[in-house]
Structure formats: structure tokens, C-alpha cells
Design a protein that fits this description.
The chain is α/β, with parallel strands linked by helices and about 300 residues long. The chain has three domains: about 100 residues, Rossmann fold, CATH 3.40.50; about 100 residues, Rossmann fold (3-Layer(aba) Sandwich), CATH 3.40.50.10800; about 80 residues, NadA-like (Rossmann fold). Helices cover about 45% and strands about 15% of the residues. It contains 14 helices and twelve strands. Strands 2-1-3-4 form a four-stranded parallel sheet, sandwiched between helices. The protein has a four-stranded parallel sheet with strand order 6-5-7-8. Strands 10-9-11-12 form a four-stranded parallel sheet, with helices on both faces. α1 runs parallel beside α13, α3 runs parallel beside α4 and α11 packs parallel to α12. Bound molecules: 1,3-dihydroxyacetonephosphate and iron/sulfur cluster (SF4). 1,3-dihydroxyacetonephosphate binds next to loops.
């Protein structure tokens, strides 16, 4: 079968079965071309909550778990069940429970890139596009933020009225970009704007012209009058942008900004899930009951 034939078959199955296909911006381009929505973590969760039908998620496990938390009555599939986010499991729920005792006044805020089990012991979760707004709205001055220290430090800078506490953790993909990459890319493309994800190290986002989620980066590049951009996030974003804006030029900040987990899902995987031939996401009942508070709080505060 060709890519085109598989894509046509996916569109037919989606219509026939009334199922949704959601793709994170980092998923392969051929998947996003047939998805009902391509977007950042917050957009996927919000879209799933407002739409009908069983859902197939082309992304990593925490994204499918979040959709399942929001839609417990519906079938939810992760297109490739081996796709996990290493950051989502960097902290054990027991470790966080112990930390909560150290900071009893703090709101416990989880980046959405966490397992359902970790969300179950947090107060609210946030995505890179909703974090600043949600944390600003929390009544607590102290914030215990897990697991991404880089995003956490970025938020601390944006919200100086809050006091952040961190544990450990970060995205192994975004960590690969360094200050030397910024200097080399700036030297090679002196007229380009640098757009980066806040999961990058502070030595990278401190030097950027724009910092935001994948959706934010794409919107900025599309709406900007500038013609050249250095992209500091997973390199699939660069591919989307180059196809969407043929008249502009996009350069990778670092060739190693590749998330292999996000690239696992294929068209064949998506088709098998749409046909119900793969295992559904199943969550422990007790975990789901606790974790949904955290996701509901995100939707309520994130608007
Ligand atoms: P978002 O733009 O969805 O925050 O993407 C970052 C990411 O790493 C998702 O895993
Ligand atoms: Fe996780 Fe980083 Fe991959 Fe996103 S890019 S799924 S945070 S490892």
C-alpha cells in the first residue's frame, strides 16, 4: 500500500466508525494530514472533551491517558502503545507525596507530561500554553512544580509574585539544545528570529525572540512579517512550518531535537486503532478518580 492509499483508508474508517484521530504537533506529518486535529497537549485535551466518538491519539501515553480521564465512557487508543514520554515518569507518586509534606502551603502543579498516577497526587495540571495563566489564577503564593525544571524556571521568571519549588526532571529531547547551538544558528542565519519551547534550558530560552508551546511557535511564525526563523523545538514542527509557509525559511536550532517516542506511531498503527484491533487505554479506577480533579482544574482555570 502507498502512503496515499493508507491515508484514504484512514479517512474512510474514521467516517464509517465515527471515530476521532488526534495528532500531537510532533507526530509524523502523514498522520497530521489525516487527523481531525493537530495541536499541542492542551488543544488535544480540549478538543477531545468537546467532540463525539471514540478517540485515537497519535502522540505519547500521557496524552491518551489525559483524554481517557476526560472521556471515561469512550474507547481511547494510543496509536503506538510503546510511545511513552520519559519525562512523564521521572517522579514517583510516593516521592511527590513526601515532598508535599515539606511544602504544606504550596499548590502542587503538574506539567501535563506526567502519568495519571502522578496527576492523582497533584492539585492541577498545566500545559506549556496554559501554565502561566493557570498558575497566576491560583490563590497559593507557593508552587511545587513537577517535573520540568526548565519550564518551571521560565514560569518563575514570568510570575515573580509566586515562589516556585522544584524537584528534578526535564525533557531529554529539548535538553539537547545548548547555548552553543544558539550562537551557531544565529551566526549562520543573522536575519532569523529564534522561536523556542520552554522545555529548553534557560541558557536557550533566555536568548530567544519568542518562547511558547508548539502551537504558539507555529502561530508566531505564520503571523510574523519576518521571513526566516530558527526553530527550537522538536524538528517535526519545522517540517509543518516549511510546508505551511513555503515563502518563508525555517532552520533547526539543533539537528538532535528529535523525540523518538513521538515518531513511533505510523499510519498502519492509526488504522489498526480505528478498526479497534489494538488494546484500549485502561486506567486504574482509584487513580482515575483522583487524577480527573487535576485535569478538570486545568480546563476550568485554563479557559
Ligand atoms: P506542547 O506544545 O504540547 O507543550 O509540546 C511539548 C511536548 O514536549 C509534548 O510532549
Ligand atoms: Fe516527552 Fe520531550 Fe518527547 Fe515531549 S518531546 S514527549 S516532553 S520526551
Amino acid at each position: 500500500m502507498t502512503i496515499r492509499e493508507l491515508q484514504d483508508e484512514i479517512v474512510r474508517e474514521k467516517r464509517a466508525r465515527g471515530r476521532l484521530l488526534l495528532a500531537h504537533t510532533y507526530a509524523k506529518r502523514e498522520l497530521s494530514e489525516v487527523a481531525d486535529l493537530t495541536g499541542d497537549s492542551f488543544a488535544l485535551a480540549r478538543y477531545a472533551a468537546g467532540a463525539q466518538g471514540d478517540v485515537v491519539v497519535c502522540g505519547v501515553r500521557f496524552m491518551a491517558e489525559t483524554v481517557k480521564l476526560l472521556l471515561p465512557e469512550r474507547k481511547v487508543y494510543l496509536a503506538n502503545e510503546n510511545a511513552g514520554c520519559p519525562m512523564a515518569e521521572q517522579i514517583e507518586p510516593e516521592e511527590l507525596a513526601a515532598l508535599k509534606e515539606e511544602y504544606p502551603e504550596a499548590a502542587v502543579v503538574a506539567y501535563i507530561n506526567t502519568s495519571a498516577a502522578l496527576k492523582a497526587v497533584c492539585d492541577v495540571c498545566v500545559t506549556s500554553s496554559s501554565a502561566e495563566k493557570i498558575i497566576a489564577r491560583l490563590p497559593q503564593k507557593e508552587i511545587l512544580f513537577v517535573p520540568d525544571i526548565n519550564l518551571g524556571r521560565y514560569l518563575q521568571k514570568k510570575l515573580p509574585e509566586k515562589t516556585f519549588h522544584f524537584v528534578h526532571g526535564g525533557c531529554p529531547t529539548h535538553l539537547r539544545a545548548r547555548r552553543a547551538d544558539v550562537e551557531a544558528a544565529r551566526a549562520a542565519h543573522p536575519n532569523a528570529l529564534l522561536l523556542v519551547h520552554p522545555e529548553c534550558l534557560p541558557e536557550v530560552w533566555e536568548r530567544a525572540d519568542y518562547v511558547g508551546s508548539t502551537t504558539g511557535i507555529m502561530a508566531f511564525a505564520k503571523n510574523s512579517p519576518a521571513r526566516e526563523f530558527i526553530i527550537g523545538t522538536e524538528n517535526t514542527v519545522l517540517e509543518h512550518l516549511q510546508l505551511d509557509c513555503a515563502e518563508k525559511s525555517f532552520y533547526p536550532l539543533c539537528k538532535d531535537l528529535v523525540c523518538h517516542n513521538m515518531r513511533l506511531a505510523t499510519l498502519t498503527d492509526a488504522l489498526a486503532c480505528l478498526r479497534g484491533e489494538r488494546a484500549e487505554i485502561v486506567l486504574d479506577e482509584r487513580v482515575a478518580k483522583e487524577a480527573i480533579r487535576c485535569v478538570d482544574a486545568m480546563i476550568a482555570l485554563g479557559g
